[in-house]
Amino acid sequence: MSNGREQWGTRLGFILAASGSAVGIGNIWKYPHMAGQNGGAAFTLVYLICIALVGLPIIVGEFVLGRKTQLSPVGAYDQIAPGSFWKWVGFLGVASAFVILSFYGVVGGWILKYTFASITGGFEALVDDPEGAGTMFNGIITSTWEPIFWQVIFMAFCIWVIVNGVKGGIEKWSRIMMPLIIVILVVLAIRGLTLPNGKEGLVFLFKPRFADLSASAIVLALGHAFFTLSLGMGTMITYGSYLDKKQSLIGSAIWVILLDTAIAILAGIAIFTTVFAMGADPAEGPGLIFVVLPTVFPQLAGGTIWASLFFILLFMAALTSAISILEVVTAYFIDQKGWDRGRATIIFGSVITVVGVFCSLSLGGGINLSAFLNMTFFDFMDYLSSKYMLPIGGMFMAIFILYRWGLPEFLIELETGMDGYKVNHWVVRILLSISAAVVGFIILNEIVDKIIGRSISDILFSASG
Ligand code: PFF
Question: N vs C: which end of the chain shows fewer Cβ within 10 Å?
Answer without folding.
Answer: C
